[in-house]
Amino acid sequence: MPELFNIVILHDQNLDVRLCKRFAWDEISGRITSIEFADNKDYNKIFANTLTKHVLIPAFVNGHTHIGDSCLPDGATGLTLEQGFFRPHGFKYVELAKQSKQQLIDSMCDTMKYMLSTGTIMHWDFREQGIDGLHLIRQAEKQAMGIKSIVLSQFDQSPFVDLTDSSQVLPEKSKSELETLWNLKDNEAAADGFSESTMNDLTDRAWITIREMSKQYNNKLRAIHCLESDSYRSVSLARTGGRQSDLQRAFELYDPDIVVHLTEATQEDIDVIIQQQRSDDCLRSRIFVVCPRANATLGLKLPPIHALLTKGINLMLGTDNVMLNQPNMLAEMDFAYRLCKSQSGDNTHDPKAILSMATTINSYPTIYGKNEKGGIYENGPADFVLLDFSAKHLARTRNLMATIVTRLDPRYILATVHKGQTMFGMLP
């Protein structure tokens, strides 16, 4: 049974900074077996006076990736969102079709290994290319070994040519594709859920059909991009006679578990989210994911993280397309924290809120059920990252949480542990 001694840990859901005499876990069960605290002090402000230079934090979960375009880094430079990423003529879709299957697998595998090296043990991937795309990412997942891919598949081809008639039903061919994605013989290889790019990609009746089908298949996850650009809202309003934004349609027709982006979210949109949260009656927690670095790279608005956090909305961080960003949660936290501070205009924001958005804490109820939670606690999942704080600019910190969020880079990750197994680096 592996053990660590005299380390600082971020304990439980509240990420309390505690000095730990002994920390142990079981590699077989993948659970934490023992946490022996040295005392009851909170070391957030006085870390520099401790003798240890090792810090244990919950492992990262990347709430939104598209790793299928790992073979196209910076390929969308100078292109708009529509030019780079919209189907069928966007740069991404055109170029992906030119790559061999092995090229796609190898590039995705490299990205997964990079994520492990930066402390990420799980990512929620919006996977293009239909059934073939699902097979490719599962092969890359096996090849990379150690990272969990929550795959949210997309139709290979758009089911509709003309979307002016919202009463069109989902074609039988598309229903069959969904059934295959969700019901492969090897259940572990099946897709975990579904996502088209926007609510404007399908008809109202099609979204309702997908929602009901997902419930029949053991409540497969439903995810959607919302309010990423102004066109998402304006097209939806035009189709509904000015009645509903794409966010409102998503709640009414699709009931998503995961909503991504919200870069164009107004106070009215936030009020809609709050009202929806009050009426939710489900086992899984609805999660909203923001990807500020990707939005900035595309020249879009930046998500109102401050306003969303202030209202208690359940937020996670994602890095979006590998074509735009390396999937580095350390960099995403740094950017998100500074953005949030700028939006708030004061000093009230605790960096702990940003760290929570990047870790296992928010993701476990959605993926593993209401009774499972992430974080570091006895009998909890052994999913954590060991940090090296021996460098002088880290060891002298006067606020450990702020330093973790804003000053770390991958050089200071000693080990990434998932389900009790060391997936990257070495433990001391």
TrEMBL record:
Transmembrane segments: none annotated. Gene3D superfamilies: Metal-dependent hydrolases, Urease, subunit C, domain 1. It comes from the Eukaryota. Residues 55-422 form the Amidohydrolase-related domain. Coiled coil: none annotated. InterPro entries: Amidohydro-rel (IPR006680), Metal-dep_hydrolase_composite (IPR011059), Metal_Hydrolase (IPR032466), MTA/SAH_deaminase (IPR050287). GO terms for molecular function: hydrolase activity, acting on carbon-nitrogen (but not peptide) bonds. This is Amidohydrolase-related domain-containing protein.
